[in-house]
Amino acid sequence: MLLLQAVLFLLILPSHAEETIPEGPVVPAPPPKGTCAGWMAGIPGHPGHNGTPGRDGRDGTPGEKGEKGDAGLLGPKGETGDVGMTGTEGPRGFPGIPGRKGEPGEGAYVYRSAFSVGLETRVTVPSVPIRFTKIFYNQQNHYDASTGKFYCNIPGLYYFSYHITVYMKDVKVSLFKKDKAVLFTYDQYQEKNVDQASGSVLLHLEVGDQVWLQVYGDGDHNGLYADNVNDSTFTGFLLYHDTN
Fold first, then answer.
1. CATH code at 126?
2. 44 within a domain of the structure (yes/no)
3. Could you list the residue range(s) of the whole structural domain that residue 225 is in?
4. Which of 59, 87, 140, 148 lies in the 20 to 30 Å Cα band around 215?
5. What is the DSSP string of 98-150?
6. Does 31 have pLDDT greater than 60?
7. For the chain, how many structural domains are there in total?
8. Where is the C1q domain positioned along the sequence (predicted)?
9. Is position 87 within any domain?
């Protein structure tokens, strides 16, 4: 062992000899404390084991704020939310611009059919149409005074009425449509008095239908009367025509 130490010492000496010798007297280095005189350094030992990691240091001071980064990618569409509450009504807007003038429409055709007639003489013949020859209105000529009948020229709904004066006998009259009585009126005569009787009805007519009044039964019920101060009248007119 001593021989190995001596060899190592000799190898170290040349390197120390090449070092620059300081000017002035050389003072020998004192030997290490706790060593004997004439000591000799040993060979370096093996590196020691790594020590245990030290504790974490304190947090550093916050750094400066970095620059704004680029916008991220657009995320997926979220679910539809609940319907919100209805807001309050806003103020009324300004009037809009008037629209263009429309195309001229077709003229509406007005359907007319009406008559109003009166009795000029006393009726004596039963069971036949009463001929009202006193014409108040018959512009469309749909009533024929020679037969006492109204002839339908426009299909639709019609209103008919009659107002008769009763004198000398009882009265029983019927309103006929196409040879069938559809309305009856009876009035009993009061002696020495002039009485009144009336009736009205709505009828749907087709083109060619006929409507008239006549005394119903025998001659005992033909007390219809008219003079210069008493009238018996028969009236009818179209309410509205069929659209089909």
1. 2.60.120.40
2. no
3. 114-241
4. 140
5. PPPPPPPPPPPPPP--EEEEE--S-----SSB----EEEE-TT--EETTTTEE
6. no
7. 1
8. 108-244
9. no
